[in-house]
Design goal:
The complex is a heterodimer of chains A (114) and B (108). By secondary structure, chain A is mainly beta. Chain A contains no helices and eleven strands. By secondary structure, chain B is mostly beta strands. Classes of the chains: A mainly beta (114), B mainly beta (108).
């Protein structure tokens, strides 16, 4: 069975950094694109970034470009999101998803607050 | 950027009734890249429909998707108690990908 487990969320001050991880199992990780989607409290879904199978192609939401970096380690079956210069408006649950959303993790809460 | 507008915002229906949810794109899109996701409170989204009309694995046939160009529809033929949730349409071609703002299907 496909499993995606996010970790690394928490409380951080504005301007701080956080690294999210997503451990994948139950499928051939290296054969699939991976995606990060976030959901602010009480709001809808917002696509953040994605990465192709070998990590050579990455795409980002405009508001996170230059601050967030998506990466992957196919040997470790893991997806990452390095978040720098965090803003209050980045507060959300961050989900990793297989391909463009055919399977989702349970999410990691990131709270940016002074 | 493709903007997806869903209507209505909230749909109040009884179990057994038919639900029709609309998603309109700001410009014509390839229907191969339209999906519908279901989200229940406190849970991650779940893929229902991809390619506008293809049901994902394990999704009951009471869920169906249709549409092309700028107008897409998710239909739930007979609502079951577990179907009361928020539904999002999703355009997943190119960058940025976009989601509609969601339609909440609530018990009347």
């Amino acid at each position: 069975e496909v499993q995606l487990v996010e970790s690394g969320g928490g409380l951080v001050q504005p301007g701080g950094s956080l690294r999210l991880s997503c451990a994948a199992s139950g499928f051939t990780f290296s054969s699939h694109r991976m995606t990060w989607v976030r959901q602010a409290p009480g709001k809808g879904l917002e696509w953040v970034a994605n990465i192709n199978q070998d990590g050579s192609e990455k795409n980002y939401l405009d508001s996170v470009k230059g601050r967030f970096i998506v990466s992957r380690d196919n040997a470790e079956n893991s997806l990452y999101l390095q978040m720098n210069s965090l803003r209050v408006e980045d507060t959300a649950i961050y989900y990793c998803a297989k391909n463009e959303g055919d399977w989702w993790g349970q999410g990691a809460l990131v709270t940016v607050s002074a | 950027e493709i903007v997806l507008t869903q209507s209505p915002g909230t749909l109040s229906l009884s179990p057994g009734e038919r639900a029709t949810l609309s998603c309109r794109a700001s410009q014509s899109v390839d229907s191969n890249y339209i999906a519908w996701q279901q989200q229940k409170p406190g849970q991650a989204p779940r893929l229902l429909i991809y390619g506008a009309s293809r049901r994902a694995n394990g999704i009951p046939d009471r869920f169906s998707g249709s549409g092309s160009g700028t107008d897409f529809t998710l239909t739930i033929s007979r609502l079951e108690p577990e179907d009361f949730a928020v539904y999002y349409c999703h355009h997943y071609a190119g960058s940025p990908q976009t989601f509609g703002q969601g339609t909440k299907v609530e018990i009347k």
